[in-house]
Amino acid sequence: MKTSSRIFFNGFFPIVSSLLLTTHCLLPTATNAWGFYGHKLINKNSVFLLPPGMFGFYKTNIEYITEHSVDPDRRRYSLDAEACRHYIDLDHYEKAVPIDSVPHYWKEAVAKFTADSLNAHGIVPWHINLMYFRLVEAFKNKDKQRILRVSAEIGHYIADAHVPLHTSHNYNGQFTNQHGIHAFWESRLPELFSSEYDLLGEKAVYIDKVQEAAWMAIEQSYAALDSVLTFEKMLSQNFPDDRKYSFEEKGRMALKNYSEEYSRKYNDMLNDQVERRLRASANMIASVWYSAWADGGMPDLDKLPEEMPKPDPEQPEAPKQEKMIGRQEE
Ligand SMILES: [Zn+2]
Ligand SMILES: [Zn+2]
How far, in Å, from the CA of 161 to the mean position of ligand 1? Predict the structure, then answer.
């Protein structure tokens, strides 16, 4: 690292130096669930799991489906209501799966806890189901714009539900002295190793109750949380401090991040966990798209009007601020 370089933490980096804490906080960051890279990869892979009646349409529009997979995270800089749609702190409710004390359906959950309380601890499983109904409606109405937009966005929320750290109030290791683990697991590892992952999942299947499937996904994520935190803690205690991080020159900046060696060790300890969660995300997304199409009457997707989606009404032209509102994931 050149001392003359300005130290710049990229979005995937934890705060390890109190000296530089202020610098980090002032800089805009770009990390979100699965990172932009991960979300795009997942949505893109989902397209290849679709049945013939859908594949052509999604393949034609694969660029839209891929690029707009990150719109929900972009909204987190401007829309107050957005943040809680991306996670649920299951540890607020119970220590381990199964999560029996939380009603799986929104109305019953509101009756038990109130909407304010649910929002305060995250609503991702319910938001997936809400998006599902929107997607079914879009298919029923043969509304190409909405089909594409909601498909891209439901893919985002489903992928978030597959991230173990999206099920905990300790979402960035801030209570266990592991600050930065969020982006380490969901951004750094896929960016380094996804070319080695086997991401070709199983073909889409019809899901009878998407709400239950969403709960299954987050409960599996929650069950995996312990290894995410414990393995990094173990590795960190047994790894030389001076090799834990690396610096990459980017122009006049030095980007600090977990070193490749450290990342590789962590990925190995996790025993393909990131790969499995990536694949499971794509499987569920394809199945949810397929189920919505089936529930929406299986419209002929080759006969939809040609125009492309208009801008999302929830998506402002420019973000209101540089930082995410609510939960920061970096
Ligand atoms: Zn995340
Ligand atoms: Zn997200």
Answer: 9
